[in-house]
Amino acid sequence: MANINFQEIHDLLVEIAYEAGRMITDARPSIDVAGTKKNSADIVTETDQAVEKMVSTRLQTVYPNYEFIGEETWKPGMKLTDAPTFIVDPIDGTTNFLHGFPHVCISLGFVLDKIPSVGVIYNPFLDELYTAIQGQGAFLKRPQKERVKLPIRQPAEPLGDLNTTLIAAEWGTDRYGNNFDVKVQTFTKLAAAQQNGGSMVHSLRALGSAALNLCAVASGGLDAYWEGGCWAWDVAAGWCILNEAGGIMAGGNPGDWQPTVDGRLFLAVRLAPSGQKEFVEKFWDVIGNGRMVYES
């Protein structure tokens, strides 16, 4: 579709992100009144729903002909197409939000031809704003500091063996079955001592927000983020930021070099002057014959 102004979309998303941030920080969520979707680890609050309603109303007022996919209004059978589409997670890190752990954000992505083209992610508790436009780089704006280009750690170091890396990986909300078994086995192999057949990574991080994990990889603070089970609204904005910071996105299952935004299986790797592809292959070796399968 011609005449799509990514800069105007970016600027509107930034404005919306700050408004959503005020709604999130003004809220007083309670574990006692929070609702659940599938189980006790899959939580939704009134604030999630209110923020998404505000976001969708503002976007559809300005862009009535664009598609909208939001976590709280998504229904089974809704599919991502090549059409211009806003993909939104009103609160990524809802469990953190409930517990007062400040790893929380709103994730606002714009996808064209299924390619993440604009990404805006805002953590209102830390007042950190991550942004990217396709072909224009990725940036971080922090309180009382100038906007900086990502990655923060420059020059980026080469990626070597897994035992020199810091990796994010989340448990997810499905805590049984094959997918959970693959995660547990992979976590164990990554963490275990090399004399016991493990990779002995520096450490694993599970901070509870896919979008902010992707931002941490884009920033260079994390070397990689492995995920199975998250959704398009968890990764659309962060994927754009990762790409524009020089990172790469591979599939969460071995052999997948062309993951899709709605594919639910991801391995994000930071910028490096060398070793990105080799890192992915080493990580896939740890997974071995395990394969996660998620319905999209």
TrEMBL record:
One of its GO terms (biological process) is phosphatidylinositol phosphate biosynthetic process. Coiled coil: none annotated. InterPro entries: IMPase, Inositol_monoP_metal-BS, Inositol_monophosphatase-like, Inositol_monophosphatase_CS. Keywords: Hydrolase, Magnesium, Metal-binding. It catalyses: a myo-inositol phosphate + H2O = myo-inositol + phosphate. Pathway: Polyol metabolism; myo-inositol biosynthesis; myo-inositol from D-glucose 6-phosphate: step 2/2. Mg(2+) binds at residues 71, 89, 91-92, 234. The keyword Hydrolase applies. GO terms for molecular function: inositol monophosphate 1-phosphatase activity; metal ion binding. Belongs to the inositol monophosphatase superfamily. This is Inositol-1-monophosphatase. It comes from Scytalidium lignicola.
